[in-house]
## 1
Amino acid sequence: MAWNTNVLVGQSGGPTAAINASLAGVFDTARDLGAHVLGMRYGIEGFLAGRIVYLDRTLGDPMDIELLRRTPASFLGSCRFKLPEPEEDPAFFEDAFAKFEDAHVGAVLYIGGNDSMDTIDKLGRWADAHGSDVRLIGIPKTIDNDLVGTDHTPGFGSAAKFIATTMREIERDSSVYDLKSVTFVEIMGRDAGWLAGSACLAGALGNPCPDLVLLPEVTLNQEALLDRISLLLARKNTVVVAVSEGVRHRDGTLLCEAAAEAADGTRLDAFGHVASLSGTGRYLASVTRAALGCKTRAIELSTLQRCASHVASATDLAEAYALGGAGVLAAQDGKTSVMTAIKRIFDKPYLYDTTLTPIADVANKARKVPREFIAPDGMGVTAAFDRYARPLIEGEVSSTYQGGVPHHIKALEADRS
Amino acid sequence: MAWNTNVLVGQSGGPTAAINASLAGVFDTARDLGAHVLGMRYGIEGFLAGRIVYLDRTLGDPMDIELLRRTPASFLGSCRFKLPEPEEDPAFFEDAFAKFEDAHVGAVLYIGGNDSMDTIDKLGRWADAHGSDVRLIGIPKTIDNDLVGTDHTPGFGSAAKFIATTMREIERDSSVYDLKSVTFVEIMGRDAGWLAGSACLAGALGNPCPDLVLLPEVTLNQEALLDRISLLLARKNTVVVAVSEGVRHRDGTLLCEAAAEAADGTRLDAFGHVASLSGTGRYLASVTRAALGCKTRAIELSTLQRCASHVASATDLAEAYALGGAGVLAAQDGKTSVMTAIKRIFDKPYLYDTTLTPIADVANKARKVPREFIAPDGMGVTAAFDRYARPLIEGEVSSTYQGGVPHHIKALEADRS
């Protein structure tokens, strides 16, 4: 059944390796239904400033879709823009819905994380209260995997695959010399430890890698950590610790905050010295070197975690694409104020279906790593975590290389279009 | 013609993504000739302590060789051990050659960089002076590409491919918001800018990426850099700068040294403030933010540059393997005190041959990026650099994945074997 409308799609919040696969899913499905697809340049903020990308033209070639799926970051551009409450600023919403009408928009699909779902929630509440039939659909996206209402979020699997792959390589690199050393690998995730826990996917049964994992869900017990490292060093040369950037001291300060304050001279480190390095990993490397006298080093995986599409998870990209398409089908079916979501059917062999979750149940909530996924001593994850996360990193994407580097879709001009 | 001897092989210095491919080449070629292959556990230092790996057993399965080629870091372990001068410590060399004789070693192949070639040079000088017929062969290896006597070094191509791939992904990640930002990506290479220059392989004709490259061969002109960044920001949102960790101020101090001193409170930064961050990239991010008021960030590629075998260059691994095999053939042919080397035949299509270079011409020398490869303004590389480096990153390796992560050869036990 042909759908004679315009579909408006936007990307919001931090970029990932999978967010463009969701855009590809939205575009392909909408086009199949006969709809036209408009893109928000730089999210809802850009759209409201009149910046629209005509995707029917921009993605005219079927190969564009293949490249788009393999291109990291947000093809349309992104924003970090918090909408006002509908009750407090009706003029804002009148303007937005007038712009939807001007562009003949029957459905708005917004690909993003927590804040993006808040945007859809507010637009949906306004539409509901004012009788608009514009359908408002959220498509989940975040490497942090902290959205509720879905088994997991697109972007997480690819980030986890990069982290696990890199962790395995770092462990080999750390082991080449015949001396005692401790390596701290700092991983993203300020409030939830899904990504740090994923480092453990580098390990195999009976051969854990990394040796320890520190999650933001567990307050740091520095003495217990140093004791554990000492015990490990007594029987092996190389200890590798994955540490979330969000780990906190008992007093609630982030390790990296404490380290930064130390470097500013406003605070001394645990040993009464001004730390010369900041960062959670650097802080722990410095403390461990001082306490145990062994070689230490700190590695930050940094931005690469969210943009390393050259080692994206095929499962992740397929799910991201499916959730984009499912959002269009839901809108055509008259659904609104919902987020598309993954419903896991089985762990192994991994099977899933897409489903819909009321957006009000999702917005402004965060999902942490549950206790049963965390080792009793708080310094690792359990087999249940592995069973949950392993399928999400499986499968490799055949990148298209040109001149020895991955080929991506041509970027949009940064200038006003 | 069968070669009835034992071949002793070692790996030394920093690990790379290609050093195990050279080990595979040595092993395969020696076995084909009928020789037995002994490995030095932890380099010459471990060997002299009696630590030998019997590779005929350890690498008994043909699949082992395939996995070895795809495994990063030094399978045999490594050391950083400087031999004494033969004239100053004859006892050391008597001991070493007695151990070679005990193990029926007819040839020693040592895979490494500058210091490793110094080891082969000294052993060769002793053998020459004392009539030993043990053949001493160097196999080049270093991501830094700073060895003389060879067109380039194995390990460089894979590191450059990771850097260029990542740089392209970082550039996409940096461009998602509609605001001005400058990203500094810190790249290895303390004395030579081959790796930092390789960042430019991310760019395509007419679309340079990164925008600027700072090499250790060029002293930083901070005012000129800030002026260039300002000009770039006037016409585009996102500026990405690749910077070698080895870049120095006019007074000869490393940028990262200056930053570390600032953080220690012993030195103020250019703006009279104590810097709270160290590292070359962090230093420049801090200076740029202070001077231009825009968003800045710093990313360190760190250890991943030398161990990211999941995105290794097929050309690099093939050359590493060939140079290992060529070393065995040279030894069988009676050559000694030589390093195997790459002789480039043609740029495009890329063709090469292996050759031999006298080890005395190699040891303790370093090769910098020549002037004609550096842009006139000192903030980029030329088309000649691209022509030189591009072929070395071409071709992808089909990794073997298990559970979503690359599968590597089983590591040797760290305990004394």
## 2
Amino acid sequence: MSASFTLAEIAERCGAELRGDADCRISGVETLEHAGADQISFFNNAKYRKFLRETRAAAVILRPSDAADCPGNMLLTDNPYLVWARVTHCFSPSPNHQAGIHASATVDADARIDASAVVAAGAVIGAGAVIEANAYVGPNCVIGREAVLGQGSRLLASVVLMDRVRLGKNCLIHPGAVIGSDGFGLANDQGRWEKVAQLGSVVIGDNVEVGANTTIDRGAIHDTRIHDGVKLDNQIQVAHNVEIGENTAIAACTGISGSTRIGSGCTLAGGVGVVGHIELADGVHVSGASVVSRSLREPGVYTGGVLAMPHKMWQKNIARIKQLDSMARRLKTLEKTLARLQGEQDDGRD
Amino acid sequence: MSASFTLAEIAERCGAELRGDADCRISGVETLEHAGADQISFFNNAKYRKFLRETRAAAVILRPSDAADCPGNMLLTDNPYLVWARVTHCFSPSPNHQAGIHASATVDADARIDASAVVAAGAVIGAGAVIEANAYVGPNCVIGREAVLGQGSRLLASVVLMDRVRLGKNCLIHPGAVIGSDGFGLANDQGRWEKVAQLGSVVIGDNVEVGANTTIDRGAIHDTRIHDGVKLDNQIQVAHNVEIGENTAIAACTGISGSTRIGSGCTLAGGVGVVGHIELADGVHVSGASVVSRSLREPGVYTGGVLAMPHKMWQKNIARIKQLDSMARRLKTLEKTLARLQGEQDDGRD
Amino acid sequence: MSASFTLAEIAERCGAELRGDADCRISGVETLEHAGADQISFFNNAKYRKFLRETRAAAVILRPSDAADCPGNMLLTDNPYLVWARVTHCFSPSPNHQAGIHASATVDADARIDASAVVAAGAVIGAGAVIEANAYVGPNCVIGREAVLGQGSRLLASVVLMDRVRLGKNCLIHPGAVIGSDGFGLANDQGRWEKVAQLGSVVIGDNVEVGANTTIDRGAIHDTRIHDGVKLDNQIQVAHNVEIGENTAIAACTGISGSTRIGSGCTLAGGVGVVGHIELADGVHVSGASVVSRSLREPGVYTGGVLAMPHKMWQKNIARIKQLDSMARRLKTLEKTLARLQGEQDDGRD
């Protein structure tokens, strides 16, 4: 992280309007509270206004409407977090891998590895696989037969791509992810299970990110499909024949059952479960740990579950859930009885 | 997938009754809707009857009672999905691995590897391990000391079997699975945790399938046991000393806590949680994302949880959960009061 | 497991008071029910008193107050499970790895590996990494640039430590764990996501255990921090900038969202979900499968969720959840009406 830039360079590279000292040197990023005189920070949340006013940051990325509260140099933008995202990459240590195949990698003679690609130590690449230009196959990754790793895509370490899986350009796959494992297809023969061969594959678009230890199963007949710009966090499970639309982001520990289609521009928070064979419309947002059991055809926010509370409160109240139907019926009866009684009393009074 | 068979060959191999052109050549599988003139399909769900009537498939696997709706050749059976399962394997690309130990694998001198077994690139096999006939140890798998991989069992890629784990015959273990990691055994010493050594192992029967990134912990004293024919999907956690009965199938992201015994012929859907030290009878079926907190001694279907709904509806209603006990009490009071009131009114009227 | 000790040796090594035959030879551990004449067992749960009375164990670890029920030799202690934990290690097979770097490992010339450390087959270690004395890097592990593995810490197999991750002393990391993967940081640009570089790292203290396939993300700006003595089970997800306090133990399949701080001495049971940017006080205990959505500032036990019940019971009652708010309002109305009615009736009677 020894890189250093002038504020003018950063403004130009990241798409913001500079206000202040163009030659000010920036050598890192920090929070408003902790930034020093050579670090840049950002302001995107009103609750940190106190820190903005007191910051010693070399410069702050913020909205023009917040400029009055900033004591120093500024990068003005309508989307401070987006500019911040771009700035972080200026200070991200460059991996600096050398093109070529490491001596300890095992590459099938029938695989095609672009000369600009990197195949790191211990990687194993099967027959017919294609590794395109500037792609990176990290240490101990395994790539199956006829799999395709598109231009500039990176498998960081110990990633497994099974046979015939295809990834587009500029994808980033974190360690331990498994793409193209068999879908869970079983036929029952008088109590005993027989496996249904999973003949489809997984097709992943461009600019897709897949988190650590996430699993994406291959399709039964057709392919499982992850479209351009999808972002998947860690430990997500995507079952066979799922389709995830463009630019949908899914947080960790979410599981999506077979043949479900998720629209584009959706967000699923962490720990969500989605049953199989349903559809979520574009722009559906599911809250953390919710279970989606039916198609959601309208965009909007959906939530389920009963959140944690002090154990005694939970115990006392949750026990009543099993009486809910009875309570509803008794409430109805009471309403009727009371109405009748009220009627009689009114009659009596007349 | 260049294989091709006559319909008669498929009928015989997969156990169905042929009706139509025995010499019809089949070169692949497809859905009823998309099948072409050289592809076989199946009909198992009444909601696709329209597609059955219009299919251009070379042949369809279906029940005799549905034959009237099929325009072409048929394979008749009482269990179409089972025959379909068998047919898919006719068209599954054969892995075609060459027996022997890859030059880049590391095999301890004291391991016994059958001459018909395959040990792929980058695999590491410890002292005393036994790899039986026709077993397959995929790329970058790790097998601990004295572990046993039974006849015809396959570890696809980056699978870890820890020391002394034993797998039976014809098991299939998907990438990233870890079998035999330590159970979570801790003793508390005035706030600080001390580890309990996990001295048991994991014993897995025949024909067991374990999904990608699933973890199965070794037992504390005795072994964790997975019986014949069990099928585990991806990202399942099986804690120490769990026992899973024959032919039980468990879907992805389910977690089973320590010392719990699950019967045979059970199904647990995705995302289920099961607490420790309980028993589930044979034939228990647990719905997706349910949490099982006590023994289930009767077969049947069990469900829990509150499913996702529009966020505002959830917010309004779930807030009331903390009032449930009070509501139940107030309801009871109302009933008593009303009964008394009604009595008095009746008295007054008399 | 051919080790054998006198009962006196065990008593001294494990910190318990011997009562009985000091020379009695112990060659293994077993449950009270199954122990034979050369095995030691423990009694810590009143429900097994029957087995204590009938045990044939060579010796039993138990509280002085239970001594009257023990037919044989005893190790007396106020914390039988803790002494048991120590005894198990006497009979744990020693790994017996030879110091040095395996020929098939790939170690960057700029990494520093202590002469007493073990680097097993297929491991890959990056530039600037430091492997301290007696540390163990298991088969097919990957260690990034400038990562530090402290004295006596062990990565069992296929563990990935990404660049600059630092582990303290005597940590134990189970297979498939990924430490230092990128946090899930995304900025939205008109529907499209841009990645926020994750410039922090992960810092792990001493005596930390991390389960199989658990993932711990690196921080965005600052580090993710796991303090001394924390124990993490399998398949846990720890998001970026989480902090977990000393001696907190977390069971399998739990997910903790970004920037959340968990106190010391907490326990989170299996399958718990914790939202981001909140704090859990020291001594908070969360029950299995609960979802924590707000800061818990008081120690105590917290629980959420609706547990599994027979499906029909669930169906009937859970459908009413969507009427809860309406039920609460109607109950209130009934109470008012009834009170009024009662008043009128009383008035009428006067």
